[in-house]
Amino acid sequence: MQIQHVFVAGSGLMGSGIAYAIITGPKLPVTLYDVSDEVLNASKQKTEALLDKMVGKGVMSKEEAFEALGRLSFSTELSAAAKADLVIEAIPEKLALKQDFFRQIDEFCAPDTIFASNTSSLPITSLAAVTRRADRFIGMHFFSPVHLMKLLELIRGLETSESTFTTVKTFGESLGKQVIVANDFPGFITTRIGMVLLNEAMFALMEGVGSAEDIDTGMKLGFNHPMGPLALADAVGLDVCLNAMNTMFEGFGDQRYRPCPLLKRLVQAGHLGKKTGRGFYTYNK
Ligand SMILES: NC(=O)c1ccc[n+]([C@@H]2O[C@H](COP(=O)([O-])OP(=O)(O)OC[C@H]3O[C@@H](n4cnc5c(N)ncnc54)[C@H](O)[C@@H]3O)[C@@H](O)[C@H]2O)c1
């Protein structure tokens, strides 16, 4: 099976980035879906700004940017997924919300449409189970910013078929991504290892081991990380980090995944990192 039209649900940081990668990479049409026109307009503006930036950098011509934008359509209707071969979900990291989405969209799509979730940590098998296509369901974990990050982590659910896996791997590679494969354990490969590091940096800050700047500089210069863990947590979104830690804590029942209380406090205060202008650092919005 060849993917020819993609429906991306959720036009936030990840959904917009995934849509951009598809309209500029394999140059396929994408329908971007979200809960309101207002959110979709904000996403459209961000996409236009990114295309302009790429034109400015000489990565693409003005005509190519114009054509890419022409491949992108926007909708607040689930019925717009009827023509899609692949649905990629990138809505907030809440199991019940995602299950509800997949339960509904299952009704609108052709039987052979493949469903993928960009979840960072939720069980793919639990999402697949609410649909009538558990064999055509897979985890497609992209990284932010999607147009720059090379990695795509594919997660096989308990019933993901070999043909689904092959189709999605080929599609992922057409986006210029390097694919790694994980089985369906909480946090898969990357979130499991990466989030524990971020969470530990938060504990070090909370306990007064060092300042945010020194913790980040320590990991950048001492371990050659391109970005410090606290700055990275702000970029990912502190709500996303907390949800991932909670999922792993529940999934494994192991203390090493307990979310740092400082992370919980910042999320309770609405300080979600870069996207709200404040997290471990402050940003100009
Ligand atoms: N932020 C990251 O770096 C990152 C990296 C990899 C994976 N993820 C995962 O991607 C998913 C999305 O994360 P994000 O950072 O893009 O979040 P975000 O908050 O930036 O965007 C979520 C979008 O979903 C929309 N939405 C909410 N409910 C919806 C619904 N019922 N139907 C359709 N749209 C709905 C929101 O309006 C918003 O535009 C999460 O599962 C997250 O764990 C995030």
How does this model look, in words?
By secondary structure, the chain is an alpha/beta fold. The chain folds into two domains: 6-183, 3-Layer(aba) Sandwich (Rossmann fold); 190-275, Orthogonal Bundle (N-(1-d-carboxylethyl)-l-norvaline Dehydrogenase, domain 2), CATH 1.10.1040.50. 47% of the residues lie in helices and 13% in strands. It is built from eleven helices and eight strands. It has helices spanning 13-24, 37-57, 62-70, 95-108, 124-128, 162-174, 190-206, 212-223, 229-236, 238-252, 261-268; strands spanning 6-9, 30-33, 72-75, 86-89, 114-117, 137-141, 151-156, 178-183. Strands 3-2-1-4-5-6-7-8 form an eight-stranded mixed sheet. Strand 4, helix 4 and strand 5 form a beta-alpha-beta unit. Helix 10 (238-252) packs across helix 11 (261-268). The model has no long low-confidence stretch (mean pLDDT 97). Nicotinamide-adenine-dinucleotide (NAD) binds next to helix 1 and helix 4.
What is the arithmetic mean of pLDDT? 97
Strand content: 5-15%
Number of helices: 11
The percent of residues in helical segments reads: 40-55%
CATH class of the largest domain: Alpha Beta
Short key terms for the protein model shown above:
Rossmann fold; N-(1-d-carboxylethyl)-l-norvaline Dehydrogenase, domain 2; 8-stranded mixed beta sheet
